[in-house]
Amino acid sequence: VDAFIRARLIPTGLTPAPQADRATLLRRVTFDLSGLPPTPTELQAFLNDASPDAYERVVDRLLVSLRLGERWARHWMDAAHFAETHGNDQDRIRTNAWPYRDYVIRSLNADQPFDRFVVEQMAGDELPDSNAETLLATGFHRLGPWDDEPADPMEDRFDQLDDLLNTTSQAFLGMTLACARCHNHKFEPLTTKDYYGMIAVLGGLERPRRGRNELDRPIGTRAEVEAFDEREAKIAALREAARLNWLQSSKSELPAGAIVAFLLTAKERSEAQTKLVQGHGKALDAELKALPVEVEVARLKRETPDLPRGYFMTENKAGPPATHILIRGKASSPGPEVGPSAPAIVAKVQPEFGLEGRRLALANWLVSPDNPLTARVIVNRVWQWHFGEGLVRTANDFGVMGDKPSHQELLDWLAVWFVEQGWSLKKLHALILGSNTYRMSKVGSAAYAKEDPENRLLWKAPYRRLEAEAMLDSALAASGKLNGEMFGEPVYPAMQKEAMAGSSDPEKVWAAFDEEKASRRAVYYIAKRSLMVPLMEVLDVCDTTLSLI
To answer: Are 143 and 548 in contact (CB under 8 A)?
Structure first.
């Protein structure tokens, strides 16, 4: 790393700044890897350690800390625009969206190879060894905003696919492909065919829902999920038959009019009958619970136990729908049909797409030697998260309109080295953090600043500000009240009444404050799109509606 940095400095006559003092260096690396300040004990131990590898041992300790995953999961979830509500007017809670967050934390702590991390998020359900973790990973596709009351459902469907494509292309490829929905990209060599070729890959995904309500799904191996679905179908059939028999048996104590209403379909009921059904639903449920059929239901549940639940898309069992280029991007104006494809400018050889497994084919291409972007994009992101700016400052845009790399050869070398090291993020951290470039002080020079005012050549350590989550976590850590509990359901920090005043239901929009629970790290705070914690907004928490970092 230092060789590439100095190669750019030498022709300018600039020399690297001296190394930062030990206290500054420990604080810097501890925040970078854990998102927390070093403890007084850790600081004193480092200051007293005169061994030549003292710093390297600090890095090694931090890389195996469970706090690493919490810190770096926040970075990735910003790129994936993670949130636990679907936005828009109702902004309903996605009750089981949080397991995706836990999946990311576990993956990063385990140093899961990044290529596998990509494949699981793109197509974990299509893997031969699909399981609960890989299903959770595909929550990546379901994290974006969702309008549960669209004015034009057909247009909204393509807006959802547009969001999927936009997040995928920016997070993994650093490419603004979404700009080609209505016409060929105005600045990049990306065509509408490229855009709709990617839509054809993602077009089979469906959001499980019942009307306006989003639904979670069971998570497990393919066999476990299939067995669970079969059990649920049997239970539904048993209960429906028992329900009909009960209503027709003259044994129900419900009013005759209500019984008639229950025997009709929803479309057949009058307004008055609909009200009868709504008014007597609980009474009917109580009667049905006493029937012998529930004994059989209990047996089925013992034989095939319930599974945990998660939020992810499902694939259309009838196969992916035909994809057409939309004239001017309008769903009501379909044009020529196109098949699945990766962007031609980077896919010199197209993946082999069939009717099934299209996302898996794309995912395998994303992390293949044939694709030059994915490794470069992620090493650039890691550099950015350590230095404040990437070697390419526009981390989501590696195109013509994006920023040119400050050190092109270093970016290329890091990408190749990263792949050779098995796509290990922890090895990449260790490489970067071990460099003299990372360990420099912020000591300035008026002459140097005139030569390179933005410090693009990295002749000194850059100034950075802590993100919202790190600042809040630091305050809790310093107060001694930080709750180190990991994983699980989101927590609700204190919320000012004034912030909730604009809600249509201020009494229910935010859960009651529990100081012990709310003293967990900010990565576990509820991510509610329409109501972020005001303090976090003041500290520039990331926008959850877009893929941003």
So the answer is: no
